[in-house]
UniProtKB/TrEMBL annotation:
Residues 138-233 form the M23ase beta-sheet core domain. The keyword Acyltransferase does not apply. This is M23ase beta-sheet core domain-containing protein. The chain crosses the membrane at residues 20-39.
């Protein structure tokens, strides 16, 4: 009897007696259950935009040679750029070795604008402990028979590097002014030091062998740079009877 007099009990009985009460309770419970399930399953995932890497178009890659002026490391994958043109009139230049019938260019400078045949002469293979790489040459490889030969500065300048490299052997870098630099590598002997002033035709070392070009006999690996960009060394050298061969 006391329960019937209680206003709260009367209100609940009145509410439960209405036709829409149970459907409303069912709907509210369903919403709560769905909300709890969605909250627990949310892992924080978000929709990718076009700025995310998965939407970026793949870029073509080239495996090319590291400049031998850099610290020894595996060749990196970068996009090739056009070589900066230069003429021999900028600096008076001579060949880095004594010209003879034995002198041959066995590795060419890699240029994307060259013919397929010329590009093939500018790619060489290097195998380390685990992988084999095909490297695009940033310079030229020169032999003179199979013997060692003297290497000369191609122009007046100052020695800015003289050190040994694990892959390229001993190497020398000379700054000639007007933005021109030359690098001489695969040397078995170096006769200059950093800070030395050199003249064109002055002996700076002797050609030898290198780890990265085990397939070649004694040779000189010669690079040229104009304003920091690798250029074809042949473009700055005077005409000479040097034979180009398949390399």
């Amino acid at each position: 009897m006391d329960n019937e007099k209680n206003p709260q009990v009367k209100w609940w009985k009145s509410l439960l007696g209405k036709k829409w009460t149970f459907p409303a309770i069912y709907l509210i419970a369903s919403v709560l259950i769905v909300t709890l399930m969605w909250t627990k399953s949310d892992t924080g995932n978000y929709q990718l935009s076009k700025e995310d890497s998965i939407f970026k178009a793949p870029q073509e890659e080239y495996v090319i040679d590291q400049p031998i002026t850099a610290a020894p490391q595996n060749p990196e994958t970068v996009e090739l750029e056009e070589a900066v043109p230069v003429t021999a009139e900028d600096v008076q230049v001579s060949w880095p070795l004594e010209m003879s019938e034995k002198a041959k260019i066995v590795t060419s400078f890699y240029s994307e604008t060259a013919s397929a045949e010329e590009r093939s002469k500018a790619v060489y293979e290097y195998t380390d402990k685990t992988t084999t790489k095909f490297i695009h040459s940033k310079g030229i490889g020169i032999v003179s028979g199979e013997e060692k030969f003297d290497v000369f500065a191609v122009a007046n300048g100052e020695v800015t590097m003289a050190e040994e490299d694990a892959l390229y052997g001993m190497k020398v870098k000379i700054s000639h002014g007007d933005g021109l630099e030359t690098v001489y590598a695969s040397l078995s002997k170096v006769t200059v030091k950093v800070g030395d002033e050199v003249k064109a035709g002055m002996k700076i070392g002797q050609a030898g062998k290198s780890e990265i070009r085990k397939d070649l006999p004694n040779h000189l690996y010669f690079e040229a740079y104009k304003l920091g960009e690798a250029i074809d060394p042949v473009s700055i050298l005077p005409e000479a009877p040097v034979v180009r061969t398949q390399g």
